Amino acid sequence: MKWIFVGSATVVLAIIFSIILFLGLQGVRTFRDVSPVTFFFSTEWLPDENRFGAFSFFFSTFALTFCSVLMAVPLALSGALFMAKIAPPWMRELMRPAIDVFVGIPSVVYGFIGLTVIVPFLAKRTGTIGYGILPAAIILAVMILPTVLSVAEDAIRSLPRKLEDASYALGATRWQTIWRAALPAATPGIWTGVVLGMGRAIGETMAVFMVIGNSPQFPKSLLDSTTVLTTAIVKDMPHTFYGTTWNNALYLMGLCLLLVSLSLILFIRVVSRRGERL
Amino acid sequence: MNANRMADRIASLMLWLAGVTILCVLAWLLWRILAGGLPHVSFRFLFGRPREIQVGGGIGPQLFNSFYILFLSLAFSLPIGFAAGIYLAMYARQNRFTSFIRVSIESLSSIPSIVFGLFGLLVFVNWMQFKFSILSGALTLALLHLPVLVSVTETSLRAVPVSYFEASLALGSTKWQAIRKALIPAALPNLVTGVTLAAGRALGESAALIYTAGLSVSRRFPDFDPMSAGETLAVHLWYVQAESVVPDAKQIAQGSAAVLVLVVLLFNLLIAVPSRLLQKRLSGGK
Amino acid sequence: MSAIIELERLNLYYSEYHALKNVSMDIRERSITALIGPSGCGKSTLLRTLNRMNDTIKGVRITGRVRLNGRDIYEPGVCVEQLRKNVGMVFQQPNPFPKSIYDNVAYGPRIHGVKKKSDLDEIVENSLRAAALWDEVKDHLKKSAYGLSGGQQQRLCIARALAVNPQILLMDEPTSALDPISTLKIEELIQELKARYTIVIVTHNMQQAARVSDRTAFFLNGEMVEYAETPKLFSNPQDRRTEDYITGRFG
Predict the structure, then answer these.
(1) Residue-wise pLDDT tens digits, C176-204
(2) Nearest to B267 by CA among A96, A143, A102, A104
(3) Among partner residues C91, C98, C107, which is closest to A165 by beta-carbon distance?
(4) Which residues of B touch C82 (CB under 8 A)?
(5) Is the pTM value of this prediction over 0.90?
(6) CATH no. for residue A170?
(7) CB contacts, 8 Å: C84 with chain A
(8) What is the pLDDT of residues C28-50, one digit of tens each?
């Protein structure tokens, strides 16, 4: 019986290796026709003319992730502190399932809301078409909020009681105890939450696809139509044929996404191990 | 010190504001989707077939495909995920192999769904020649949810008090018997909750299915052939918004969004909550 | 020496459970008072009443008076944070913050408004000297407090409590988690601190009470059974129950 279980665990190992392998093999074929320098640093994405510079995609991905994390983390952290330290039990019981529902809403639905509510709102307010990194960042911030919040809340709740006792016994108020003793001590766990949120933001496809504009250019502002790595893949895939450079380039972008998310996981592991030593 | 007390009160206020804001955002989202979409949801909408050009298309086949792909993918991933979870919870020792597996599972769960879609496209659609079909989609989805199932299984098993296991062994059972007869039944509520929530999320999946299950539906309804085209409701929502030329595209999209959210709410509330209640009763009302 | 703490018919209830029964006692300034008794007799509860740390527990009810410097500390207008600044506490398990040694000691002054670095530096040095820890850590102030030994961590917690300049120091079994040598060091420290602070110490170690304190109070089931000068309580106890406890017949 035991070997069935071991076998299943090995299957899981095999899967991740094959994903890296397959995508890697397919993606690296791009470099037969495009130099890595061009691919990573040129902003000219013109597949019809065989020009494959994906720098804009990398930049927009980075910018989008940065903006959405910036918007989400303060609110998520406040919410986590609220739930862990301030909220009365009935409020906590209300918020827990609420967060679960947040997580459960499909990303296309978030994208749909972004498209029908946020984009027109921004268009009216700023006189642009309303698409771009800004609406995508807003939507993503709402999407990653529950992730960051629940991990941060767990970290704060699992702090030992004696830490707070020490602070109160010195005459600190509740807020001082939270701000000066609890938060600093929960920092590794909070970082884990933030990085997990980042991972989700980087990898989100459909919601972003519906509001970001999707022209393969370098964004000149937060409200300029652009493309990120995930949406580039989703948008171009139907127009390509298996085996062409264009097709391979998309797989290469998928490989990059894979490697980025793997390194984020490794980063989390290192940070939490450092936190454990304290 | 008055300044400190003031700061304390202001901070508490701000944190309350944060909590209430989060709830309000959620409420607004739900209201917007359901109020906008439910009026368009009729019997004909739920079970009718989509139209290419005319008004009045329905989502019947897509809804069917969503559930079909879900069940099929669970059929693939549950046994493996379950078994791997049992391995990690009951048999694994602290060695490199185990750490390796844990890292793999965490890594798998962090990979963007579009990357799974690419993998599925490469391996299932092209290489194995399954083409754009329910089968390709189900296999891809199975991969996507494998890590979640493994960790849900492991967590649920670990949450059962060790005393159950030891009691069974003390009565002379084998390890596998103890797992099967004592641990798994006790872990069942947590397991069901976890799998249900994962299933709810699977129903909303789109990026992994666009290029594996495809963008069209079969002509017959219902069609149980796993090789037929398998556009799901989530994918359809995007398609209708982006490409469709039907005059009532917006209404169809709204209706689809409402149905999707309703199904998720259903999964969350109707199945997960009684599970939690059952669990509380089993553990003596903690 | 005047009485600085006066307890008058203090009763404490944890919901329905009557934890402290009609306790009345006076504690003199700059003295060391030991509270002894078997587990669960209420001595720690009494200690926590003096700095209102019991407020953090739900369902606690108090009748009677607790006066500090003549004023009832449970009166409505009292600022709890100021009270706790004035009545410091050292816990059974050393509980430094996961911060540097310097930041641990500076924590208290910082929350009460001290901002200038030179002021903080001075307070940190004075407190660490008073806790007999300065020489051991003066070159490592930025290192994590968790790198210290158990005995050093407890002295750090004492320094931390002293840094806010309290009148009174409450110590809840401060050496029960430490080895004999650290214990002795801290007992010496307590004797030194008596010159400037009023100390109330809870201990389940009778020899420690006998070594260290001026007056000792014996508690049993929430009642204060006997309260006298330490030598007298141990050599000539008035109450039968006290004698039984001291001679080891129970507890």
Answers:
(1) 989 999 999 999 999 999 999 999 999 98
(2) A104
(3) C91
(4) 1
(5) no
(6) 1.10.3720.10
(7) 168-171
(8) 999 999 999 998 888 999 999 99
